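Handoff note, outgoing to incoming analyst
You'll be picking up this chain. Sequence as last confirmed:
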Amino acid sequence: MTTQAQGAVDAAVAHTPHLAGEDKLDPLASRYVDVEQLPWKPTQVEGIDMKILLQDKKTGLMTALFRWQPGTRLPLHEHVEIEQSYILEGSILDDEGEVTKGNFVWRPKGNRHYAYSPNGALVLAMFLRPNVFIEEYTGQKLE
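Most recent structure output, in case you need it:
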């Protein structure tokens, strides 16, 4: 199999849920996403909604926007792989510190923590694999 053909197979696994016309695109075509047109979907955590921008359910790769309502608390969870978060609005706190608008935090594989957003937040987050809840929602993934 050629490198380009293998790339087409690999690219076909990742997709953007609710992206109009994605099924008609060539596997190697760029995906231009009108983020405003994607729906917010609730997560299992009340007060946190998400828009999935890119997802590969086979590997767990995901890029998403997360909208935190003021006062929302994310239960204890583990980062199964590296997670990266860029804060577009608001802030998120945990026992290690606070990440604020325009700033970035990444967490290594195995990191466990609670998170809290006193005033709400809009976060662009990138996961190699989704986080797994430890206490509430035990064993469920945030996806």
